[in-house]
Amino acid sequence: MNYEKIRSAFLPKADAAIITSEVNRQYFTRFPATDGYLLITADEVLLFADSRYIEAAQRSAKNCDRILLYKGIEESLKPVLEQKGIKSLEAESDRLTVSELRSLREKTGVDIVSEGGLDKAVDALRAVKDEEEISLIKQAQKIAENAFSHILGFISTDRTEKEIALELDYYMLSHGADGISFETIAVSGANSSLPHGVPSDKKIENGDFITMDFGAVVGGYHSDMTRTVAVGSVSEEQKRVYDTVLAAQHAGFSRLMPGVCARDADAAARDVISQAGYGQYFGHSLGHGVGVEIHEKPNLSPKSAAVLEKGNVVTNEPGIYIPGSFGVRIEDMALITEDGYENLTCCEKKLIIL
Ligand code: ZN
Ligand code: ZN
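Above: the input record for the complex with zinc ion. Below: its predicted structure, written as tokens.
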């Protein structure tokens, strides 16, 4: 774990950094726990775990020099800060509540800096994945892909959107996923025009597009994919919209390489959709980073100033949503490599008509 980048971010302003958020603590230690602190000092990294987690942390937490029993800020954290002569701490600002910040300040008696610098440094580190992280994301993606193959045989006009979503979840959880990445989306017919619609009791009908957006979690790492399939038959317009989304995704992929500004990848895909006359129906960003969180840096949005780097894992997910009619989204996850990208999503994208 590269703590030097974190140290160079906080050391000019504070003697140490404290990680209070569950997700960042898990990122550094690879150890999931709902509570605890990670203290990064100039020369050590200390994990504080309470009685519920201490034994498991001692067994499996990584990237820390010492693991200490946590009984409370005054009982456990304050003495360590005093012992090490720490007079100021930088804390996260995106994920710390105002009352937590106040409590840390009052109970430790040290200065707390929380201006976003630590968040930026951690986000930048998290955006570039190492081999182990990539392997976990690939495992998670493989499970989701197998779930997609399975669901093609499950979908029929007897099924409801909720049943399809539940079957995807059940498949992933019973084939090695530790969890699902987010509430699975399975929307059909007119509901598919809602980019993040909620599965309903609506039954699948002939002529429907079904959009399924789902992912698995393995070892704390997420996957994310979307496929739109048709049932029975498709209209000329449905086919045209599907082909446009697919062409937009290809255009997005053509810009996925190190050194490219993330907003240029978004623009490449967006231009294809605009030129086909559907620009007003593509409201969201082209993609986002994926890792210990389902949405993380870098963002592939029209405003993003991020520059793609080797090791980024990002989604490429253009969509067209025609209100009251239907929608199409196709989402793959890609790893930015030395000279381009590796598509981590290996399943079919030609329009499938079931
Ligand atoms: Zn998705
Ligand atoms: Zn996504």
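Notes for the reader.
The chain has a mean pLDDT of 96.
The longest helix spans residues 131-154.
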